[in-house]
Amino acid sequence: MHSPAPPLYGDADDAGSATEDGPRSGVAAWIDSLLDPKMRENRDMQRRARLLVASSIGFALVCLFFAAQMALAGRYPTSSVLVLVAGMGLSLFNIPLMRWLRSTVVPGTLLCLESTLLIAYQAFNDTGLMDPTLLWNLLLPWLAAFLIGPLYGFVFAGVVVAMTVGFFVLQASGYPFPMYSTQEEIWIFYMWCMSGIALFIGTIGWIYEGQTLRDLRETNDHLRETRDALRESNQRTIDILESITNGFFAIDDDDRFYYINRQAERLLSAFRSELLHSHIHQYFESEDGQILLDYIALAQSQQQPQLCEVFFSEIGRWFEFHVYPFASGTSVFFSDITSRKTYEQQLVVARERAEEVAQVKSQLLTNMSHEIRTPLTAILGFAQILSEETEGAHQEFGQLIEQNGKRLLATLNSVLDLAQLEDPAGNVTVEPVNLKTEVRDASRLFQTKAKDRGLYLKTELPPDEVEVMAQANSNYVNRILVNLIGNALKFTEDGGITIGLRCEGEWIDLYVTDTGQGIATEFMPHIFDEFRQESTGLSRSHEGNGLGLAITRRLVEQMDGSIDVESAKGEGTTFTVRLAVSQTVPTATEA
């Protein structure tokens, strides 16, 4: 970024400052003070206005000078002197007129017309074609062009020619001009007129052309700064493109390389000097390369970025190409993705193997279910008969066999349930479920067991008129309640268990709170892990396989719910299951 160019003139209050073309004199500052502030905001308008002020004052001074000379000579008629004085006044009037109109067109036109008439009048009333006053006609086209516009310069040039021809005709026809000036005075007036004209031309050059040259110099300086900034920006862009790890090349509208970075040179295994200005089809001429060319053509035709992955069989490498079209060509970023593609292929193989293992596991569990459940059912049957038909120690042995057989069967069922829930192909049907009914049924199921252990089992439900319907699966909800209540009874020695429901906006919280031994803080992260229990090994204080809570979490997740636990060692535990409120109201038949 460069700083903006300084103003060419500045405001009137700083008009006395120095510039590169010379000091800002008091004259220039004084001229600027006569302009309307709005006219100083436009450079061209300011130049024209300055020239009009200088020309008006200059012509007024010339009129005053020649009026004084003619009055002192005593031979000239009073009318000629008065006309010069009037011309002086009209010239000065153009300055306030310009300030009022904020334009130089009308005042400039009036100044040129006044000058033309004044010159013609003085020449006609003295020496005619030989009158020195006619020399001022040389300035009229210049002033008209600079003050009004280029076309007016030709108009007033025609006026000057017409005036000259008119005086020539009068002279040739023998018209008797008054001839008040002597030959000596004519030469003196010639010298004064030429000096005045030279002074006017110098003023025009100072005010108008000098400033134009300054504008050209400043424009040239700005162009030079812009060129340097552009060159610096281009170099910065090249440095960035050379430093990136991706390959990059750009092609023009004729599909020829015009830039290739260092990484592209390495990835393409070709020298930049060979590729630059060559056609892209010459390099990507194989069937694999044609895929990239098709995507480049597609990007150019649709003017939309394109992404493609191409395997180049000749070198055995995968590349990913990002194609970006722009106004005068196409840019392409690309990178070697062979390692990523290899990893993806390994993932596909690993997934296929995992699916095979899952299928084998499913078959194994199915076979295990048949091979273990069948003999275990027979064992439980005979153990029950043995405990019923024998007495004493034999009856106790039968009861132990039956008890441990049931424990083994429960473990087997839990493993099979967990395997079924982990099967990605398994689907669960959700529908509106009355959670109040589910809680009441589960509570009745465990009331006797809780009473036998001296524990209370109570429910906290919303009023009867409030329906609590969740989008869930009835069987899953029942199994969740059985697992959580059974787990609470297992680890509670004093107090009891509370089962409740709480509505929270679009969610329903089902909670089971006990006053049992609680869970240690360090074990909380593993509470839902499979086959994990807080007490392990020979020191275990409670039976179990560590699958109940893991299965519970799977059941909740199958219904798109969540489960949380809060516990403190020795202060009890609360499990909270959150399920979505059902948006469907069951019909009377469904209820």
Q: Helices and strands in order, then pairings?
A:
Blueprint (H helix, E strand, L loop, with lengths): L17 E2 L2 E2 L2 H8 L9 H31 L4 H24 L3 H20 L15 H8 L2 H23 L10 H61 L3 E6 L4 E4 L1 H6 L4 H4 L4 H4 L3 H16 L3 E7 L4 E10 L2 E8 L1 H52 L3 H30 L8 E4 H18 L3 E5 L8 E4 L1 H17 L5 E9 L2 E8 L33 H11 L3 E7 L3 E9 L11
Parallel strand pairs: 9-11
Antiparallel strand pairs: 1-2, 3-4, 3-7, 5-6, 6-7, 8-10, 11-12, 12-14, 13-14
Structural features, described:
This protein has 591 residues and is an alpha+beta fold. The protein folds into four domains: 12-220, no CATH class; 245-336, PAS domain (Beta-Lactamase, 2-Layer Sandwich); 356-422; 431-580, Heat Shock Protein 90, CATH 3.30.565. Helices cover 56% and strands 14% of the residues. It contains 16 helices and 14 strands. It has helices at 26-33, 43-73, 78-101, 105-124, 140-147, 150-172, 183-243, 262-267, 272-275, 280-283, 287-302, 338-389, 393-422, 435-452, 474-490, 548-558, and strands spanning 18-19, 22-23, 247-252, 257-260, 306-312, 317-326, 329-336, 431-434, 456-460, 469-472, 496-504, 507-514, 562-568, 572-580. The strands form four sheets. The chain has a five-stranded antiparallel sheet, sandwiched between helices. It has a five-stranded mixed sheet with strand order 9-11-12-14-13, covered by helices on one side. The longest helix has 61 residues, at 183-243. It is elongated. The relative contact order is 0.05. Residues 1-24, 536-545 and 585-591 have low confidence and may be disordered.
